Input
Amino acid sequence: MEMLVKAPERSWTVEDLLTLGEEERYELIEGRLVPMSPTGLSHGYTEARIVALLWSYLQEHPVGILVTGEVGFVLRRDPDTVRAADIAFIRADRLPPEGLPSGFFEGPPDLAVEILSPFDRYPDLLRKVSQWLEAGTRLVWVVDPARRTVTIFQPDGALRLLDESAELDGGDILPGFRYPVRDLFEGAR
Output
């Protein structure tokens, strides 16, 4: 009787992921490629609103840069992990003096914003939030358009669930940023 032996899975690296280009979208989790699917309309609308708000804030308070479009952040090496946030903010003092790299950012963002889609699995999302925080992200906002809430996660384990009656703030990452949660979802119904 012939025995089939399963070949070991290949461990992908940051450099391997970069060679795939942008035609097929993946995250890299501990050396494994994980496909990313397109988002839905509600997700995209909410993302655009938050980007506009943060962009406006940063025009008045130029403390860093805002990125969107699933930019990759190298969170770990050997095995490599590259995660992508829906929206991310990086403080100006952490940006490379030679300019923005064309590849992934080495290290975590200061703020990661994740917008829940109807198909997201909560355990996967919590794992991603943990990876952001363990890598050094100082603030994670998880925005849930269906429930019209924002959950704020911090490295010390503190979390706050904000409903439509609350106000979202940027803490010490985006000092002075405040916005009513209810207004984040305006026009999304």
Q: What stands out?
A: The radius of gyration is 18 Å.
